[in-house]
Amino acid sequence: MDAAEGWKSRTTVEDMDLAVRVGLHGWKFVYLNDLTVRNELPSKFKAYRFQQHRWSCGPANLFRKMTMEIIYNKRVSIWKKFYVIYSFFFVRKVAVHFLTFFFYCIIVPTSVFFPEIHIPLWSTIYVPSMISIFHTMATPRSFYLVIIWILFENVMAMHRTKGTWIGLLEGGRVNEWVVTEKLGDALKNKLLSKVVQKKSYYERVNSKEVMVGIYILGCALYGVINGHTWLHFYLFLQATAFFVSGFGYIGT
């Protein structure tokens, strides 16, 4: 840590910042397969959204600040620099969020208005199916949730894309840190009764998800009326996912 200039607070992902700098000093990490730790999910969907914003905004902002530092680094090979910039940062921390949201939630729905445009099946079915299968191989007990997981990930891609934009452009919320609320056994023991008070209907509504859901639903209805192949089946499901999220029915 000392050789890598220690802990820096220039982004909201200080641990990733340190890990990248240590890697650029030539150190290698060992992944321990047999090491397990307890993990707790965010207690509310709003807390989960804030967490995902931080996890997408922070890496994008770190990418912006470290690109030249990586290029001018003299301790690692050109191949290692290329891997860190292209694969680790650009593809995994930036491109994947943009591709998921804009392609599956904007381009694919909009294509129903242009029947002369043909989107190949490999991009809409084969590749997503393979990715989903690979993800569920580690947890086969959750295989029955794979369709719901895909739809939910597309919804979250909107928040991750927004966070990535803010990180790249250093927008107003770039250094926002909202502690992820995790109640643990407090609900079971009734220790935090004030925390779990039900919110009003209007407080639960998330306008961004609702607007995207309305757009996708409109595309689906247009596809049904004009007989546009099979896309409307997917669009109805995706619109439903946005509405469930937008109207706050994901739960605690």
Automatic annotation (TrEMBL):
Q: Which Pfam families match?
A: Glyco_trans_2_3
Q: Cite the Glycosyltransferase 2-like domain residue spans from the record.
A: 4-115
Note the topology in the membrane. Answer: Multi-pass membrane protein
- UniProt main location, coarse: Golgi
Q: Which GO terms describe its biological process?
A: cell wall organization
Q: Where in the cell is it found?
A: Golgi apparatus membrane
GO MF annotation terms: mannan synthase activity
Q: Which UniProt keywords apply?
A: Cell wall biogenesis/degradation, Glycosyltransferase, Golgi apparatus, Membrane, Transferase, Transmembrane, Transmembrane helix
Record field: transmembrane: 83-109, 129-152, 209-225, 231-250
Q: Which GO terms describe its cellular component?
A: Golgi membrane
Which residue positions does the secretion signal occupy? none
Q: What is this protein called?
A: Glycosyltransferase 2-like domain-containing protein
Q: Which organism is it from?
A: Brassica cretica
